[in-house]
Amino acid sequence: MVEKFVGTWKMISSDNFDDYMKAIGVGFATRQVGNRTKPNLVVSVDDQGFVCLKSQSTFKTTEIKFKLNEPFEETTADDRKTKTVVTLENGKLVQKQSWDGKETHIEREIEDGKLVAKCIMGDVIAVRTYVMEA
């Protein structure tokens, strides 16, 4: 059920994100900005079943639109060109990105009314937590 993710989510914490960005190959300058940015995440679903994930911050706004289980090309906030597929597994929204022989995935789930995003690259895990904006 993607519907439970729908809404505007405000980031309240970000743990280990610098290590995660390092692990996926993000340069120092971009990491500095990434670490200071607390984006809002806006999740919506249209009547054709397309899911839209929009990350909005003063620094940059990125948006992806996709259908579950259908691969698509994504340009990430740090300008990687990835082949991405998003699936729903055990109530989690799982986004898998592959590029240059590497793969990372982001698992988003709702826990105690919060949206928790786990960014996973090998054994490096960053956890970013969001609350629904009132």
Automatic annotation (TrEMBL):
Keyword annotations: Retinol-binding, Transport, Vitamin A
PROSITE patterns linked to this entry: FABP
Sequence ranges assigned to domain Cytosolic fatty-acid binding proteins in this UniProt record: 7-24
GO terms, molecular function: retinal binding; retinol binding
Transport listed as a keyword: yes
One Pfam family recorded for the sequence: Lipocalin
Record's keyword annotation contains Transport: yes
PANTHER family hit by this protein: FATTY ACID BINDING PROTEIN
Family the UniProt entry places it in: Belongs to the calycin superfamily. Fatty-acid binding protein (FABP) family.
Purpose of the protein: Cytosolic CRABPs may regulate the access of retinoic acid to the nuclear retinoic acid receptors.
Protein name per its UniProtKB record: Cellular retinoic acid-binding protein 1
Annotated organism of origin: Gymnodraco acuticeps
Name of the gene encoding the protein in the UniProt record: LOC117536188
